[in-house]
Give the backbone structure.
Amino acid sequence: MRVLVIAGRELKALFLSPIAYVVLALYFGIMGLIWWLITSQTFPAEYRLFAHEMHVFILFFIPAISMRAIADERRTRTLELLVTQPVRDWEIVLGKWLACVGLLALMLVGTMQFWGLMHLWTEGALDDLPVLTAYLGLLLAGMLYVAIGVFCSAITENQLIAALVTFTIIIGLYFVRILGASGTGFWQDVFQQVSTTYHFDEFARGVLDTGHVVYFLLGTFVFLFMSVRTLESRSWG
Amino acid sequence: MPDKSKDKDIQEMRAKGAQRRSEPDEASESRRHSGHEPRSDSGRRLLWISNGLMILGVLLLMGALGVNIMLAGSARVLWVRVVAGAAGVCFLAAMVMGYRDLIRWFRTRATQEGLLSLAFTVAVWAIVIFGVYMGQRYSHRIDATKDRLYSLSDKSVAVLDGLSGQVEIVTALRASARPELAQEVQRAKDLISLYESAGRGRVRVEHLNPDRHFDRMNELGIRKTVDVVVVKSLDEGGQSQTLQLYDATNEQKVTSAIMGVTRESKPMIYFIEGYGQYSISETGETGLSTFKKLLEDDLYEVASLNLMTEQGQIPADAHVLVIAGGNQPFPEEHQKAIADWVNAGGKLLLLAPNRLLDEEGDAPDFATILADWGITVRADVVLDPDSSSAFSYIPVASGSGIGEHSITEPFRTRSASVPLDPLVTCSLRVDSQAPEMPGQPPPPGQPIVLLRTHNLAYSKTSREFTSATKEASDTPGPLTLAVCASREIGSTIGMDDEAELMTTAKVVVIGDEMLAANGDIRVALGVYQRSPSRAFVLNCVHWLAESEDLITITPKTDTSQPITLTKSQRSWNRLVCLLSALVPLVIGVSIWFVRRA
């Protein structure tokens, strides 16, 4: 319950500041432009390509959403105020993460209008289930990226540094698959398993694999766990 | 006296001062514990060097990891050892130089708490990595696409489920160097990844970079110049099979290869000898030893068969019979025996001898064998003045002259052509029931034209022709060079365990007796690395012997229709794109104004 209170407070703060609107407007603007470019010539009646584009662009927006989560509290010295309240560290972290995921979900829901358009143009012949799996993949990947963002926000009070470190990590996870192409055997498998694109591709194609779901959920958990430990470290002296 | 007592006091004070200096007080002790004790210049220098060595060690360790990934071969092991060793020396030196600081650092509360937390975090990471591994190992996969585009067919899954051992699929595909094949390479990789996930640990996939992983490629016998996929059984003494890129995009071919490498017995191919046929033991220009080797590489058992010594009996284990040429009369009873065997579900590849150029005039026409199939071997020699080759008059099938069939599928591209041997190739005649143009589906059991020359080609029908140029008496093109035919047979013959293999009678007739001979094949291997002629003759054997009868998988095609927007749809689309960006902006600005007010 306290998690929801913190998440609500955080979301309210996001929507009372210009950040949420700038992020939403920019994201929808860019996705609209890409959609317009895809549909300006003959294109296949499938959502896979657009889902990949959405995945690429949330990489750029998630650092902006998550950078202020804990870093801003540290900077304004309100973190001490927060921790004196009857809330646990994990509730603070989970609440902040949930608020960012809420904004991310709004970004994804906002792009569903393009799905509606395609559905309309194909007169219902569009294969809808793969679109849903693509959105599920985007949400799961976004949850992991936000968790990374919250962790980076917890290790520094400088929002810019938090955003840069977040971007570096998530772009690294996105492109690490390329490194796998240079290796063989074990290293190829390792880089492939670490890469988020490898796990997201299947969702975009319309395949729901529990292995990939487990990857994103456990990845999210581990970064949230590290965020909690980082928050706890303030009491070590 | 007063002076003496004063001196005594001073001495006592000095002694106390010296004692205080030699015994550190609580504050200095605490400073030392917290690591904030002021240092001498040399101490500070030592600390800097120690820290520098530590950073250098970390960098070298990362370098070793990079070397391990980037380099290949024996140089990699050496360099990894050198760089990692240097990193170790740096760490050791740093620890020796800064051991006092290290001890102090370990004593602080923050370090102890931090180390405890680190251990806890490492444990959580280990659990998470194990969880991800288990999640992948025991995953459940749901293909949400309408036509199950990204799933293997039930038949392939059944084959994988039935595997007793492990199979390794190694790809050596070079997409970047050949952009025109990038889509095919991706298709092959996507398909193979399906085998990996459906195999649940029984299928291991490795992607090699042909420009880098030379050692591994040598180990697997892959030549650097070709894009291939190797399917290999990891059982003791396991076999391997190499698939070309186009085959690797075909589920049926990949599943057949998996079945092939895990199968205990190999399909048996007999080459008929004894009546002037080319021999598989002959290593000269006209021998078939290289062709035999290629077939053995593709997991066939190859042997010769002399019908004279076998009293016209065809072995029960024969999957395919090959007759390559012949310059002596082929006894009628043997032709009859082969015809009966084929009609009962056997498979025959006939590389027809050229009767026109046989000086003795003894070369057989195999009329008895081919009578039921509506195919006749003509006594002529095909010449093609427009072959655009360094050698003149090579009969060539290209473009629409290459028939639509699984045998010709890999080289049915706009620029591909299949050249046959000059001054050896004869033409074939097929019954009028067969379609005139390649690509049209024939009535069941009727021959399908595989190769046909273009209109400019012609054939000499007179043994005494003196000029290679076209004459009035010549047969004009287009001329049929190769045909195939198959017929469903209700009854079965031969082996009990693979009786299904014999339910379809198949025949391939090629008007070029030299197509499989060493001279031609060697040219194909040496000069034309990707020779369609070589692919063609091998594919003929694959089609005859492959397990198509055991497993038929309908290829899946993406049924999503292309969309082109109308003018009004474009307008709506533009409006929606614009509004989607403007709406949050307008709301944001409104809220800003309200809050400001």
The mean pLDDT of chain A is 88. Chain A touches chain B through 70 residues (CB under 8 Å). The radius of gyration of chain A is 19 Å. Residues 25 and 107 of chain A are 9 Å apart (CA to CA).
